[in-house]
Amino acid sequence: MIYFDNSATTKPYPEVLETYMQVSAKIIGNPSSLHRLGDQSTRILEASRQQIADLIGKKSEEVFFTSGGTEGDNWVIKGVAFEKAQFGKHIIVSEIEHPAVKESALWLQTQGFEVDFAPVDEKGFVDVAALENLLRPDTTLVSIMAVNNEIGSIQPIEAISELLVDKPTISFHVDAVQALAKIPIEKYLTDRVDFATFSSHKFHGVRGVGFIYIKSGKKITPLLTGGGQERDYRSTTENVAGIAATAKALRLAMERLELFSNKTGQMKAVIRQALLEYPDIFVFSGEEDFAPHILTFGIKGVRGEVIVHAFEDYDIFISTTSACSSKAGKPAGTLIAMGVEKDKAQSAVRVSLDLENDMSQVEQFLTKLKLIYNQTRKVR
Fold first, then answer.
1. Measured in whole angstroms, how far is the alpha carbon of residue 285 from the centre of its chain?
2. Range 284-300 burial, b when 16+ CB lie within 10 A, else e
3. Which of 289, 298, 368 is CA-nearest to residue 123?
């Protein structure tokens, strides 16, 4: 089996699963309980929080645990909007955001908020000048992803941070789900960023766990109320085993970031060069300012899901751009926003690489690609 769908989810590290099992078996108390078993859970919880904070260069009191990226994005977009509604009801997100951000923004429109969508250029990068023109006195939130999940474009977070540096009334959120442990953290977690979203299963942690960064002094309305966990910001019994496993996964992934970048970048370059040699293949992912591990392409006249299943017949697993919307059969929203024609966008498939992949798998992939390409000659 060749697994080239690592942007959808990654395989948990063995050490991470061991941590999860050990904590699940031995740390049985609820962190909210007053007895010593509860104290044991609290110590594991707070040690994990501190480790994660250290790894992202922030303070432990700025880290709040969630169930993953979707909850984190929903919480920030809706929570900030409602918290600051008395000061303005205008928010801005980019046209290429993950559905967790975009759908949250669209829902806010039904609640009386105004939403503008910042455009992107033909390569998939947010147009900073156009974003600046959308800013208004009543703008309370700007949300831009760090790495696009469909084509891998690294968004100009540093430039947007400079744009917003003298606008303290505007909160700046970054969806960093596809960026953490993939590209250098200083590219997207700048001092100007107020909120950021992360998900464990994207960096070899377990599913169902994530965290958000909330800069000290910034306020947000809770989505979940109840027992007052997470300093009254997110009420629900904490997933202590999953959180401990997340801390372990992040440490291991961050230690391997440079190796990850070099190895996946080399594999991506080989695949990309091979794709460019085919006259009826579109390559949507560029080289400069793109994540090293994501490569999106399409075969003329062939729908993406057909290509996915063709590779699956050879035990090679890729995806049609965003895993969250692939089963809906929609064309890649990022490509449409870039001005790509709909039929081309519907052909898009995504290869997303990891350290566990190697050049022998790349060679097998390219061999099967040639077969599939020839099999689709009549369609093309």
1. 17
2. bbeeeebbbbbbbbbbb
3. 289
Residue 378: the pLDDT is 86
Other Cβ atoms less than 10 A from the Cβ of 351: the count is 29
Set 283, 323, 324, 372: catalytic member: 324
- State the pLDDT confidence band at 321, using cuts at 50, 70 and 90: confident
Active site residue 324: yes
In this structure, what token pair is assigned to residue 70?
């979707």
CA distance 356 to 361: 10
Q: At residue 325, does pLDDT exceed 60?
A: no
- For 107, what's the count of Cα atoms within 13 Å in the CB-facing half-sphere? 14
pLDDT tens-digit map of 76-102: 999 999 999 999 999 999 999 999 999
Q: List, in order of start, the domains of the chain with CATH numbers.
A: 2-8+256-377 (3.90.1150.10), 14-251 (3.40.640.10)
- Output the pLDDT for position 330: 61
Tell whether pTM > 0.90.
yes
Long-range CB contact pairs, 370-374, < 8 A, 24+ = 372/299, 372/307, 372/310, 372/311, 373/278, 373/280, 373/281, 373/299
Is the pLDDT at 326 greater than 80? The verdict is no
